[in-house]
Amino acid sequence: MPEKKTNALISIDFDGLSEPAKALIEKVSGAVGCLFEPTHKRRIAKANADVALIEAQSEIQITDLHRRAAQRWLNEEAQRQKNIEDITKQAIPHLAENTDASKVDNDWITNFFDKARIISDAEMQELWARVLAG
Fold this sequence. Notes:
There is one protein chain. The protein is mostly helical. The protein has helices at about 20-90, 105-115, 120-134; strands spanning about 5, 10-15. The protein has one domain (about 5-134).
C-alpha cells in the first residue's frame, strides 16, 4: 500500500516522490501550519468569547427573572400578611368574654387563614373576622 502523508492542510501521496520533494512538502506543510496557527487560535478564542457572552446574557436574564419573581412573591406575601392581621384585629371586638382561644384546633386556624389571607375587601374581612371570633 502506498505511503500517504496527511497533514491538517495538505494531503499528499508520498509514493514515488524523491526524498528532497518529501522534505520540501513536509517543510511547506509545517510552515503553512505554523502560519495558520495564530489565525486558528484567534478564531477559537473569538468563538469561546462568543459562547461566554451568550452564557452571561442568559444568566443575566435568569437572574433578572428570579429578581422579578422574588419581588412579586414578597409583595403578594406582604398583602396576605396584612389581610391576616386586619381580619384578626377586626375579630377582637367580636369575641365573647368567655371565649377560650386555646381550645381552637390548630388545623382549623391553619385552614381558616389559608383561605382568609386572600381576602382584602373590607366587608368580606368583617365577615371572616366574625367567623374567627365565633
